[in-house]
Amino acid sequence: MPPAPPAPYQAPHLAPAGEGGYVPGYQVNPNPPGSGKRRGLKIFGIAVASLVGVVAIIYFAGVFVFMGRFFPHTSILDMDISGMTPDEVHEMLDGVLGDYTFKVEGHGLDLTLAAKDMGMTLDSQAIADNLLSQMDPWAWPYEVFQNHDDTQDLVSTFEETALADTIQAAVDAVNSKGQAPKNASLAFDDAAQAFKIEPEEEGNTLLADVVLDQVTKGTVNFAPKVKLTDAVLAKPSVTEDDPALAAAREQANTYMDGALTLTMAGKEVLAIDKEAIAEQVKVADDLTVSFDATPLVSMVQEKVNAMDTVGATRTYTRPDGKKFTVKGGDYGWITDSQATAEKVKEALEAGEGGTIEIVMKQNAATAPDEHGRDFGSRYIDVDLKKQHATLFDEDGKVLWESDIVSGLPKDGRDTPEGTYYIKTNDGKSVLRGYKPDGTKDYETEVEYWMPFKDNSIGFHDAGWQAKFGGKWYKEHGSHGCVNLPPDKAKELHEVLEVGDVVVVHK
Question: Mapping DSSP to helix (H, G, I), strand (E, B) and coil, where does residue 255 land?
Fold first, then answer.
């Protein structure tokens, strides 16, 4: 495209300039370009500054006001405290405390309390000041449009003893009619002959300390009612699924294996069964298991002591059918109760029962029957009334017999009654007797000496006796021994055994 032609020349326009002559027209233009825009900005700035100033005045005025008063829409205990000062709130709260009552309900407890009943106090001035201090007056433009319920910050204090005593009395009244909970425990099962777990049992008694805690927390903010929760109920502290209880059961049952029987000559005379052992198994509150064998051991020792038969009364029937009762003598069982008790204690504590033969210091032939007889069929029967002695064998048959002369029935020379046993059977011996003053009374040599009471009373040959049997002994009796014809003494010596039982009776 061809270039545009140059503009035509125009001469400068001259305007009058007064007395000074003329000046160019552009130098005297009254509305220079942009002057209106600047003026508008200035006016706007002044307006904004004025507005900010007003807002600042209003804001700081609000800050000043709410430094000493509560925000609008503020309440406590459903009472409006909007715009109040702390002093005004303080006076209001003092009035509230005097009228405050509350109810405690639940789990059988129905109690109405007043502030005075619980020694309730309220530092209302401190509370009011504290509530105000929690407000942020610098945020008042936002906070004045919010709702403020400060009830949760209203904290009272209690005279603990007064309230605790009141609660304890109320709880005691409820508990007196209630059922306390029962912990799961161990019990001996007779059918199973072992310990088993008895389940826990729930109760409905209350825990005073928990009730007190819930009342304190529930009324500290002036709540009108405290509804007790299940937490106030006393609960079993041990339940049936407690592993410690299961372990206790296992340990307790180990002692059941200690059941044992005691025998005398193979015959059962005493038993300690599982039930007796179970009575001595104790489970502590911490579920530790202990076993005290002492009562059982003492019982065994006492009963074993009573099983001694030396000197006891025995009733027996002779092979010819006649019945006799005799007492005394040195034959019979002598138990070692101490040694037996030690064996029993060891078995019980180890849980290793079974059969324990009673330890003896002296044995008899058999365990005593219901009549006290503890000697066998083989024995020598000395009948003082009939003045006759008979040796019966193991089958009850007569092995030897003879008329006798027993002790003179006066001056203490009677042949002693009782159950004895032959001490020796050595043959020849010299017998000596002494008077009460210690001087020798007699000295006699015999061919056959078979003592049964110590070494002082026994069977022996007595060739000096003119006759045997009948009533001869009443005038010609011995010093206590059983006199025999020499031939009969020889026969007895040949069949008699050391240890053979001798029963002397009338």
Answer: helix
C-alpha angle 109-115-121 in degrees, rounded to nearest 5: 135
**CA-based radius of gyration for the chain:** 60
Structure tokens at 269: 């005379």
pTM of the entire structure?
Answer: 0.64
Residue in this structure with the two tokens 């007779």, named with its chain if needed: 190
- CATH class label, 379-505: mainly beta
For 59-126, the DSSP string reads HHHHHHHHTSSPPTTEEETTEE-TT--HHHHHHHHHHHHHH-EEEEEETTEEEEEEGGGGT-B--HHH
pLDDT of residue 46: 81
Write down the pLDDT at residue 143. Answer: 79
Contacts of 373 (CB under 8 A, 6+ apart): 314, 315, 316, 366
Range list for CATH 2.40.440.10 in the chain: 379-505
Can you read off the two tokens belonging to residue 286? 């911490």
Per DSSP, the residues of 309-376 read: -TT-EEEEE-TTS-EEEEE--S-S-EE-HHHHHHHHHHHHHHT--EEEEPPEEE--SS---TT-----
Ranges in the chain annotated CATH 3.10.20.800: 246-362
Q: How far apart are CA 168 and CA 206, in angstroms?
A: 10
Residues involved in catalysis? 460, 481
Structure token digits, residue 432: 């000596």
For 432, the 3-state DSSP assignment is strand
Q: 235: which 2 tokens?
A: 């609960």
pLDDT mean values, one per 10 residues, the chain (506 residues): 49 47 50 64 77 81 76 74 78 67 89 75 67 79 74 57 87 94 95 96 94 83 85 94 96 96 94 97 95 96 95 97 98 97 96 95 95 97 99 98 97 96 96 85 94 97 97 97 98 98 98
DSSP 129-155: HHHHHTS-GGGHHHHTTS-EE-GGG--
Q: Report the SS3 class of residue 305.
A: helix
Q: Report pLDDT for 343.
A: 96
CA distance 372 to 454: 23
Q: Which amino acid is at 247?
A: A
- Written as six digits, the tokens of 358 are 């009673």
Residue 95's pLDDT is 62
Q: What are the structure tokens assigned to 460, written together? A: 């022996």
| CATH numeric code, 246-362 | 3.10.20.800
Contacts of 293 by beta carbon, 8 Å cutoff, 6+ apart: 280, 344, 345, 348, 349
Q: Is 12 exposed, middle or buried (0-12, 13-18, 19+ CB in 10 A)?
A: exposed
Q: How far is CA 180 from the centre of its chain?
A: 17
SS3 content of the chain, % helix, strand, coil (to 5): 35, 25, 40
